[in-house]
Amino acid sequence: MKQKILNKLNLGEDHERECKLATGGLPESIWETYSSFANTNGGTILLGIREHRDSFTVEGLTDKQIIKYQKDFWSVLNDKNKVSKNILLNHHVQVVEVEDKKILRIDVPAADRHDKPVYIGTDPMRGTYKRDYEGDFLCTEEAVRAMFADQRDVSGDVEVLDEFGLDVLNQDTIRGYRIIFEQLHGGHPWNALENDEFLMKLRAVAKNKNGALSPTIAGLLFFGEAYHITEVFPNYFLDYREECDDKAIRWLFRTHSNEGDWSGNIYDFFCKVRTRMDDEVAVPFANRRDGYRIDRVDVHDALEEALANALAHANYYGRRGIIVVKNGKELSISNPGTIRVTKEEFYAGGNSDPRNPNILKMFGFVNVGERAGSGVDKIMTAWAEQNWKKPEFDFSERSDRVTLKLEVGQVVYIPGAADIRNTTENRGNRITKEMSKEDRILDYIRQNGSISSQEAADIGGYKSKTGARKLLDKMIEKDLIKKTGNGPATKYVI
Questions:
Q1: Which pLDDT tens digit goes with each residue over 473-484?
Q2: Structural domain for 441, as ranges
Q3: What is residue 487's DSSP assignment?
Q4: Is the pTM of this model over 0.70?
């Protein structure tokens, strides 16, 4: 009976809905549900239906009741003193017949972030609701303030922090970022700039009200010292843990932003954690193609993207910070702040609305992160290729967090976007073994940004790095590549 009614109403079992008898008038609780649906993922209110745990009973409404309820509903909805915002159109309220009885169906869409919070009365701190599997709940003041902050079209992370000078930024972080930038963008005019000018181009710093340079919010988070970051964001905390099932051992490895022996900023955290995650999903040595080892596959790019997106979408005013936990084959990445698009848009991709777009842009300059909104699709595809358990996203409205749960296992080489291709677009479907050693090296640099002599040796099938270095020197003479760094840090870039 329940499924029959749901089919009649074009509602699935998982559809957000609220059934109310409404026999004694328009229920007061309807406004809490309206607010919660609008502030979460939308839903449907059904008047004239009694819902049991596993079934529905259609009680129905009289024509007189329907006329009165519709009049009362629209009257309250358009009263600014009772409801902050009417986000409904006429077609959102319908009279539907089920089992020869009439019910009132009210479809509430998810409100655009510019309209949130949708609240009851005149005090948003006391009248804003959200919804989870337990039903409607009153939002915390922190969650309400986050919704107001998300209304802005101008990115909040470019706000200039007038009270700080550039001494709050970590010079080692800036130096490391610029090395990667130069490797990836050889010949770029920004490479010749002094640090201050370079950071201005990134919008990591800007002129303050006195005409001097100060970091932006994005710049402080990306390049700053944790001590100074917490002056602006008291709840700021980045935590990576590798746990085990042995209760006597708290964790196998841990690093966090309050350690004090490193900067604690989000870029250095990303670099530290990326290395640990890459090690956890290392490609077996047996994975070779035409004499060279495959060290990276699509999974690595997907993991990087998942981490960068968490850092770029986080609400840094939120509690508990960003937490990454590895336990056996299970990996979770959790950040404060809910998504700013609908779940449907989120999973479909192509409509990204990052909370900190400038942070995402700075990641993009070093070939990390997806501004176009395809990050979710990249993760899903990479996991499907490996035949691993489908990634799960947990959108916790009560705690105002998004958690990505991943299961990792033994990586298998599959041709994809992150590794040295078997085929290349500009060569049709020509297989790698037909490519010259020089072309293989150039392909590797295009995909990874740089190459070491050991990597060149693996690709070229040399028994030692000596032969690879000779080939690399010839490529330098031909002006195909450039050499950067010295000693063990030597890399070759285009």
A1: 888 887 788 888
A2: 425-493
A3: G
A4: no
